[in-house]
Design goal:
The complex is a heterodimer. Chain A is built from 6 helices and 8 strands. By secondary structure, chain A is of the alpha+beta class. Chain B is an all-alpha fold. Chain B has one domain. The two termini of chain B are 27 Å apart. Classes of the chains: A alpha+beta, B mainly alpha.
Amino acid sequence: MPDEAPRGARRFLTDFLRPSRSQAVMALILFICGLAAVMQVTANSADAGYSTMRRSDLVELLDTLNAQSRRLEADIAELESTKSRLESGVDAQRIAAEEATKRLDELGILAGTLPATGPGIRMTIVDPQQQLTPEILLDAIGELRDAGAEAIELNDQVRVVGTSWVGGSAGALVVDDVALDLPLTIEAIGTPHSLEEGARFRGGLVSQVEGPAVGGSVLINQVDDVIIETLHRVSEPQFARPA
Amino acid sequence: MIAILGLLLGVAVGIWLSPTLPAVLQPYLPIMIVAAMDALFGATRAYLDHTFSDKVFVVSFISNVTIAALIVWIGDQIGVGSQLSTAVIVVLGIRIFTNAAAIRRKVIHA
């Protein structure tokens, strides 16, 4: 049917141009349709469509919104608590880290693995007759510790720690495998007055050294900033484990 | 041509005068519009099939629109209004697509 389309088109054209009763009817119907469509569109855009909704729809909508807002409020509460928990957690962690660092510093000074500075005394022992025995030195260290010395250094060579030992013989002292030259210099950090008194009391270090058995002399200076830079090398414990 | 003029006139009157429908009828207007669209597509198909009759068209148009609104109104009365309006729109939509397919086959033979 090659001429089907032209014939249909021609019929459409003649129908389109010639008024008829059916055209009038169509016009009326289309008038109503256009009117209704425009009314609906304007009503929809005017008030977001709520006024044209049924009551059950509105109730359902309200329910949905209420449930949604309840859920969102629960979400907010949960997130708030998470936030505060995280914040307090961060705070606690920071404080713990600060405490740990402080403790590490204290222990480092105590164990002799960190350099230390502070007020204290510098004591020089001159022993021309080489009669200074290891026992006198050990007593001296013990007295300094009793007087509150927090860090002790000998001759800028040896840091005295808990495991230090004193050996050798009179005039040829050895501490922690290091031979000490004379005159001997002892530096100690602590309350300067207490440390000096700890050396000077009757029967103490000064009495012993300046007594007839040794015949030396002791010079004690109170210093505002004793600097102790010698470090003790800590060996890894082989048997002891943290309990 | 008169039909096109009628459509344009309806749109113009709707825009300029912006008449308001009584609130009772407002929920049913969308359904009625969809039913009218269905009737118009059916009329176009009938025209292309050479079986168009204005009397049949007017009757089918009015009855379609009325029945659609009536079904939804009854649904509202028994509490299933939104479901029934969905059902009516689905059925009318299917009919519109079927008619549109038939029109397409008539006009462009594809």
